[in-house]
């Protein structure tokens, strides 16, 4: 997710009726890559197993190649990992996000930030 101070820009690529990839699915991919399993990734992100599994299913059905491969079993015999295609997808998504944030920087973005009404919580 591209965040810079009070600015949050999200990039989503929509496929059919759902995001094919967006900030949430990118975080899931990173967690699976880091944790080595869907359940561990869910725990790390504070998500239920069902929620994270549905996101993985969405990733695997929205792209021409699988994004996450899984292997049944506990311990060292099971787990999940990003495919080569999934790793390229994640890297490309993050690169687009970085370029989007860089493209947004400048006087127009500065004006939009300055034009916001102050947060009510900051000014009781």
Structure description:
The chain is of the alpha+beta class. It has one domain: Winged helix-like DNA-binding domain superfamily/Winged helix DNA-binding domain (Arc Repressor Mutant, subunit A), CATH 1.10.10. 52% of the residues lie in helices and 17% in strands. It is built from 5 helices and 6 strands. A two-stranded antiparallel sheet has the order 1-2. The chain has a two-stranded antiparallel ribbon with strand order 3-4. A two-stranded antiparallel ribbon has the order 5-6. A hairpin with a 2-residue loop joins strand 1 and strand 2. It starts with a strand and ends in a 9-residue tail after the last helix. The mean pLDDT is 85.
Largest sheet: 2 strands, antiparallel
* Percent helix: 40-55%
Quantity of strands, as a count: 6
- Report, as a whole number of angstroms, the end-to-end distance: 30 Å
How many domain modules? 1
Q: Describe the strand arrangement of the main beta sheet, using strand numbers.
A: 1-2
**What structural class is derived from the secondary structure elements?**
alpha+beta
Order of helices and strands: EEEEHHHEEHH
Question: The CATH topology, please?
Answer: Arc Repressor Mutant, subunit A
- Overall 3D geometry? elongated
Query: Strand-residue fraction?
Result: 15-25%
CATH superfamily: Winged helix-like DNA-binding domain superfamily/Winged helix DNA-binding domain
| Number of continuous helical runs | 5
> Residue-averaged pLDDT, rounded?
85
| Named CATH architecture | Orthogonal Bundle
List low-confidence stretches.
none
The oligomeric status of these chains comes to single chain
